[in-house]
Amino acid sequence: MRWYLWCAHRFVLSQYFESVGIRTRTFHQYPELESLVMVNVRHIAEMGAYVSLLEYNNIEGMILLSELSRRRIRSINKLLRVNRNEVVMVLRVDKEKGYIDLSKRRVSPEDVAKCEDRYNKAKGVHSVLRHLADSRRLYLDELYEKVGWPLYKKYGHAYDAFKLAMQPDTGGQDDPFDHLKIPEGLRDDLVAYIRRRLAPQPVKIRADVEVSNFTYEGIDAIREALFAGIACSTEHCQIKIRLIAPPIYVLSTMTLDKDRGIALLNSAVDAIRTTIEKKDGKLEVKMAPKAVSLKEEKDLQEMMDRLALENEEVAGDGPEEE
Questions:
Q1: Are 149 and 27 contacting, i.e. CB atoms less than 8 angstroms apart?
Q2: Which of 164-173, 223-232, 277-286 is predicted least confidently?
């Protein structure tokens, strides 16, 4: 009975890990020495922390206490937390005994960014193959053997092959799936889902500026300057300007190319500055153009709602009647 419960528990855990996209694997079964891997902290002990290597089928590894930080450790919980992902370096791999020693202190911020990018790509590949396995009622491991591993071997990362498949009319020898031994219908489903799942998402670019003019023209000069910024809009990137609270304005645009969107808002800021300075006004950049997250947009909206509420006329604000 206990054996049955243990097996059921393991099955439920494996289904959970696969459902949330944790069970991803690279082409190799074990990581190479000095390579960077993404791990999830499972348990913190006196000797160090036990972790699961997310890109290697959740095999267990250990971050030794001496490899946590270059500085003196006062509290392990400030460096590591259970269930949080970390980027670490592989120090030793013993395939026979199953020991994998890892280091956190040898990882630089640049290494973290590279590893996170690679891991996010692996999750994208995994989500595509998992969807295909569910819709076609196939084993996920079978799809990795027929699709995932051959693409990893040929292109270095299957995600790069998926990006090539998104380009129209790849055809001929440029088609990344030509060498795969899969049915035509399965290939068509794979390409269709890749183009739907991995299509680039629009990015919101935002800049905050303070525009003021205390001359006779005042408001008219500010309005003219803001319209000069809006005039920098293109067919694919429309610039919008909203008032937060005088004299602060928000410039924003949606684009598929982040760098191009930032450059567009920079040109709009320059146009506003040139126009307002001709009218003896002034522009000050409060936040340079950058891609913003949903949280930043939510915070902005909450601030605007709060300011609007404060400016609303309430009972007793009006002049007293005699």
A1: yes
A2: 164-173
CA-to-CA separations, 209 to 206, 217, 219, 252, in angstroms, rounded: 10, 20, 16, 11
pTM over 0.90: no
Going along the chain from its start, the domains and CATH numbers come out as 18-106 (2.40.50.140), 114-197 (1.10.150.190), 203-309 (3.30.70.1130)
CA of 255: how far to CAs of 34, 47, 75, 192, 290, in Å? 38, 49, 44, 23, 12
Q: Which of 304, 288, 308, 290 is nearest to 210 (CA)?
A: 288
CA distance to 21, 92, 131, 229, per residue, from 265 (Å): 36, 49, 38, 8
pLDDT digit string (tens) for 34-73?
A: 899 999 999 888 788 899 999 888 899 999 888 887 777 6
Angle between helices 184-197 and 158-165 (to 10 degrees): 90
